[in-house]
Request: fold
Amino acid sequence: MTDAQKTGDRQEPAAGTAAAGRPSRRSVLGWGGAGLALGAAAAGGTAAALRTGGDASPAAAAGDAVPFHGAHQAGISTPVQDRLHFAAFDVTTSDRAALVEVLKEWTAAAARMTAGHEIGEGAVPGNDELPPDDTGEALGLKPSRLTLTFGIGPGLFEKDGKDRFGLKDRRPKALIDLPVFPGDNLDAARSGGDLCVQACADDPQVAVHAIRNLARIGMGKVAIRWSQLGFGKTSSTTPDAQTPRNMMGFKDGTRNIAGTDTERLERHVWVGEKDGPDWMTGGSYLVARRIRMHIETWDRTSLAEQEDIFGRDKAEGAPVGKEREHDEPLLKAMKPDSHVRLAHPDSNNGATILRRGYSFTDGTDKLGRLDAGLFFIAYQKDVRDGFVPLQMNLARHDTLNEYIQHVGSAVFAVPPGVRDEDDWWGRALFA
Ligand code: HEM
Reply:
């Protein structure tokens, strides 16, 4: 292990190499807590955080590390970072032991990357005869609050009628195949997956580096099925911070579950001991939907109609008839087919989810329209009581449907957190 790895820094290129002469982010901003906060503020970090609706907390400005080990995986109730790289993987090996080896290696790499370390022997190891253990593009970058959240899709338990890994009996009842919702126009190439990793970070390069390296480690045993980049968070788990705006220009995430609201998290997000199966206690279920927005049509819609569609005003984000964003919504004052009225727990027998989505733009389509929208991510204790009834209600009645279309879909069981250095992603399932 190199000195840099021992001290926890991403290693800088050695003196004399081509990269060594360039000033690094570390040398500009400093590396310790106070130096970072100062450096980020000096570099306009505070202003940028406000402009993008980012968390104004010192940790956000500092790009600190988020602890990897714990009762729950990070990246669910922890503060939402600015960027996303989400990847769904197909398992291509039929060898259970080989798959377990990948999961162990992934976990070890994830623990290092989230702490801001290089993987294994690093990007510039002593032996230059072999490909390095780390691809190197995160060298000198801060941990950037990187979180890596791992999930398991239905296909790991059974695919094409085959119990591939002897796990069929261990499939959680809550891990259902999602029903077809009215208006769905799903692309199979952007849907499903046997495994997933949600990488969130304040620096896109840190998130992309993480997914790229996990794919590299799994080469020959797992392969990326689809992936999605997200550039702006559309929800918040920190209600005191400024609420971000989505691509329709509205504040999004106002009434999300706060990461500090333990009672609501236990009730709606974390799988409890009694919910079963045992290997999921402390975990959650993730639904991802790629929702395309018809931006051009939306942009020709009057402000009054836009506000009616959501049931909130655009500037403040206040519910109809109220003054402030966080005022309690009066559902009866909203149009019956408005998004917020239809999505509210009172309209869905209490169904409540934790939203953690991101905006995306993936270039333009053949007609020159932006391929843009919301990569919607929701966490819940049971999709049958969360996303499914909610989306059924929205898909049937929401006026927003004139401006959006669901084009990708996936569901994953997200196991509890990795407890310590001997634990690994999926251990309790494979035990
Ligand atoms: C492109 C699609 C969508 C857009 C642009 C969108 C936008 C919004 C906005 C602006 C709000 C109000 C602010 C807030 O409380 O967060 C909101 C609320 C909400 N949305 Fe969406 N949303 C979309 C899709 C969905 C989907 C697919 C679901 C779930 C199936 C959903 C569930 C909710 C919930 C639960 C609320 C909070 C309702 C409340 O308690 O007041 N949204 N959404």
User: Anything to note?
Assistant: The longest strand covers residues 370-380.
